[in-house]
Amino acid sequence: MILKNIIDCISVLEQETFSDAWSRDSIEDTLKQDYNVVYSYFVSDEGHSVYRISKEQDILVYSKPYDGDWTIKLISWEDFNVCDDTNVGAVDTLPGRFGGYIIASLIGDETELHRIAVVNDLRGKHIGTNLLDFYMEDADECNRYFLEVRESNSIARALYEKQGYDELAIRKNYYSNPTENAVIYEYQR
Ligand SMILES: CC(C)(COP(=O)(O)OP(=O)(O)OC[C@H]1O[C@@H](n2cnc3c(N)ncnc32)[C@H](O)[C@@H]1OP(=O)(O)O)[C@@H](O)C(=O)NCCC(=O)NCCS
Question: Is 160 in the active site?
Fold first, then answer.
């Protein structure tokens, strides 16, 4: 149940944010591949939490009360992916307001960030930075990190450059709707 709710949140934010938004089905399909990982961010009255979701292992939940440090716990897929409301002990509600997400793939020693977005009225509060920190730390067995971004997206580019990404190449007219160059960034560990 909670997984369904998280996919719904990501899907809505995709539609609100991107002209080439991923459909709900493609987000779901992404999660069927072992090498893909989703990080989803929540803000509640108690603090912040980040869910690391990937088929190849149990769900990692990072939580941080406003006056404390990050702690980690595990939730099994069985409890997480529950669709039966009668299932006792199932985790079925979202742990606060959905704040944003990352979708990335980790393959061998390379990783690629495919999507990142933060809910409009929560931007500028370092949720993007926190998400990127979790992803980059999580992928610490990778040597090369890649991503691409619209040339005009100065806020995202500032975020990536702050985290140590370097410009690698320009892909001319890579994006459509509107047509625009892509900047390829790389981070080397
Ligand atoms: C890009 C995005 C994920 C950043 O998330 P965020 O939570 O707002 O970013 P943060 O608050 O962590 O800020 C990160 C850095 O971005 C820059 N930044 C953030 N807001 C900014 C603004 N309004 N103006 C200029 N720079 C800004 C700053 O360098 C900031 O670091 P600093 O505060 O330490 O100086 C968010 O703006 C977003 O969802 N944008 C729409 C989707 C998108 O463009 N995704 C990227 C596609 S490749």
Answer: yes
| Cβ atoms within 10 Å of 49's Cβ, excluding its own | 22
Considering the candidates 160, 165, 185, 187, report the single residue annotated as catalytic: 160
Cα–Cα distance for residue pair 41/26, rounded to 1 Å: 20
Mutate-to-test residue for ligand 1 from 20, 127, 159, highest number of ligand atoms within 8 A of CB:
159
The mean pLDDT of 166-181, rounded to a whole number, is 97
Q: Tell me, using a 6 A CB cutoff, whether residue 183 lines ligand 1.
A: no
pLDDT in tens, 115-163: 999 999 999 999 999 999 999 999 999 999 999 999 999 999 999 999 9
Q: How long a stretch of residues is the chain?
A: 189
| CATH number at 2-135 | 3.40.630
How far CA 92 is from CA of 40, 52, 149, in Å, comes to 15, 16, 34
Catalytic member of 148, 165, 185, 187 = 148
Mean pLDDT of 43-56: 94
Report yes or no: 91 and 78 within 8 Å, Cβ to Cβ. no
**Domain spans of the chain?**
2-135, 143-189
Query: Whole-structure pTM over 0.90, yes or no?
Result: yes
pLDDT of 183 reads 98
Average pLDDT over the chain, rounded to an integer: 92
Pocket test of ligand 1: the residue of 10, 122, 123 to mutate, having most ligand atoms within 8 Å of its CB, is: 123
